[in-house]
Amino acid sequence: MILVTGGAGFIGANFVLDWLAGNDEPILNLDLLTYAGNLETLASLSGDPRHVFVQGDICDRALVDRLLATHRPRAIVHFAAESHVDRSIHGPGDFVRTNVEGTFTLLEAARAYRAGLDAAGQDAFRFLHISTDEVYGSLGAGDPAFAETKTYEPNSPYSASKAASDHLVRAWHHTYGLPVLTTNCSNNYGPRQFPEKLIPLMIVNALADKPLPVYGDGLNVRDWLYVSDHCAAIREVLARGTPGETYNVGGWNEKANIDIVHTVCALLDELRPSAPGSHARLIRYVADRPGHDRRYAIDARKIERELGWRPAETFESGIRKTVQWYLDNSQWVADVQSGAYREWVAANYAARGQGT
Ligand code: NAD
Ligand code: TDX
C-alpha cells in the first residue's frame, strides 16, 4: 500500500485513478476535502477495496501516526497543499499552515514510522514530495530554463510556502536519512482541474458566455504539462529515483497566456459550433496579479536522462482532450460550481463510513 495525501484534488485524483488503472497495489488517500478536494471525481472507485479514503488533515499528527501504524504503507506520495497563487495573495495563512506545517508533520510522522520498520522496510521506504517550478522564481525572456541546480527565489506566498516545504524535505534527508524524493513540476492541465486555474476557468467561463479575464498584458509565459504525463513521471521517480535527489518535470511547452486563451477559444469554436459567435469575443484584459512572475520554463533533461521519462502528450493533443472532457462532463462542472459535490459526498460516501 502507498499513502497519498491530497488524492481528492486535481493532480492527486488523476494520480489515484491512473495508479489503480494499471496496478492493484492499494492506495490510502488522506485528504481534508477543502474547497479543492472533490470525491465526486473518484466516484468510479466507490466500493473498490483498493482505495481507502480518509477525510483528515495532514497537520493532525495523531491521525497520521494512526494511519501509518494501521496501514503500514511502503511510501508516502505527498500532494496535499493549498495550490492557488491568487488565493495565497489574499489569504496566505492557510498556505503556511498546510504547505509548511503539514509537510513538517508528515515528515516527522514518516521519520518515526520508518524507525520502527525492519532493515528491509527502512531501505525500501520512500517519501515523495510533489512541488512546483514556482520555487525557482521568475525568468527573463532569454534566461535558461530552470535546472535542478537553480537557486530558490520564490515570489508569492504560495511559492514561498512550497519552497519552505522543499527545504524541510531536503533537511530531513540530510539530517535524519529519510529517503525523500522531490519533484518540481510546471503548470499542469487536464481533466478534473478546479475552475480557478487558467485553463479550466477559461473553458468554464466561455461555456457560460462569461468574460475571459487575462491578467496584465497576457504575455506571461508558463510551461504546460498534461496531468497524466505528470502522474507517469511521479510513478517513475517513486520506482527508480535516487533518494535525496530532486527531479524537474516539464512539458517542453512554453506558451504565453493569451495564446493559451486563444487556443481554448478556437477549440470551443470548432467543438461547439452552435455558440453565438467566436468565443474569443469574451476575452477581457484585467488588472495584473500582484508580483506576477513573468516566465517559467523547465529543463527536464535530468529525469529523461536518468529515468527515461518524457511527456507522451503534445500540447495540441492534451488541450483538445481537456476541452472535450469539460464538454463531456457538464454535470461535474455544474456540481463544482454549485458546491453540490459536498452533498454528493454526504450521500454517496460518508454514509459508508471512512477507512481509518
Ligand atoms: P489542488 O488544490 O487541486 O488539490 C489539493 C488537495 O489537497 C485537495 O484535495 C485538498 O482537499 C487537499 N488538502 C488541502 N489542504 C489539506 C490538508 N491540510 N490536509 C489534507 N489535505 C489537504 O492541487 P493540485 O493542483 O492537485 O496540486 C497538487 C500538488 O501538486 C500541490 O502540492 C501543488 O503544489 C503541486 N503542483 C501543482 C501544479 C499545478 O499546476 N496544479 C504544478 C506543480 C506542482
Ligand atoms: O483568470 C486568470 N487569468 C490569467 O491571466 C487566471 C486564473 C490566471 N491567469 C494567468 C496567471 C498566470 O500567469 O495565467 C497563468 C496561469 O495561472 P494559474 O492557472 O493561476 O497558475 P500559476 O499561477 O502559474 O500556478 C500554477 O502552476 C504552478 C498552479 O496553480 C500551481 O499550483 C503550480 O504550482
UniProtKB/TrEMBL annotation:
<dbReference type="InterPro" id="IPR005888">
    <property type="entry name" value="dTDP_Gluc_deHydtase"/>
</dbReference>
<protein>
    <recommendedName>
        <fullName>dTDP-glucose 4,6-dehydratase</fullName>
        <ecNumber>4.2.1.46</ecNumber>
    </recommendedName>
</protein>
<dbReference type="InterPro" id="IPR020904">
    <property type="entry name" value="Sc_DH/Rdtase_CS"/>
</dbReference>
<feature type="domain" description="NAD(P)-binding">
    <location>
        <begin position="3"/>
        <end position="322"/>
    </location>
</feature>
<comment type="similarity">
    <text>Belongs to the NAD(P)-dependent epimerase/dehydratase family. dTDP-glucose dehydratase subfamily.</text>
</comment>
<dbReference type="InterPro" id="IPR036291">
    <property type="entry name" value="NAD(P)-bd_dom_sf"/>
</dbReference>
<dbReference type="InterPro" id="IPR016040">
    <property type="entry name" value="NAD(P)-bd_dom"/>
</dbReference>
<keyword id="KW-0520">NAD</keyword>
<keyword id="KW-0456">Lyase</keyword>
<dbReference type="GO" id="GO:0009225">
    <property type="term" value="P:nucleotide-sugar metabolic process"/>
</dbReference>
<dbReference type="GO" id="GO:0008460">
    <property type="term" value="F:dTDP-glucose 4,6-dehydratase activity"/>
</dbReference>
<dbReference type="Pfam" id="PF16363">
    <property type="entry name" value="GDP_Man_Dehyd"/>
</dbReference>
